[in-house]
Amino acid sequence: MYAAMKGRDELMNFMVDTLAKGWSLAALQLTNCMGHTAEDLAIRNGQHRCARMVQTQVSKIKFIIKI
């Protein structure tokens, strides 16, 4: 979540890919103690590229689950 907040694109890309492969959708929907996801925190801090990475990966996983 810290990488998303700070706009660390390369780290976010690696983490999103790695977590999605090993943990699936649950890892991308984890929340902090205030109920915010990494995507929420990225958007709140103006890191739209990081938020988009998470959104794209979630969409891919949901598409695969439907098939």
From TrEMBL:
It comes from the Eukaryota. This is ANK_REP_REGION domain-containing protein. It comes from Brugia pahangi (Filarial nematode worm). The lineage of its organism: Eukaryota, Metazoa, Ecdysozoa, Nematoda, Chromadorea.
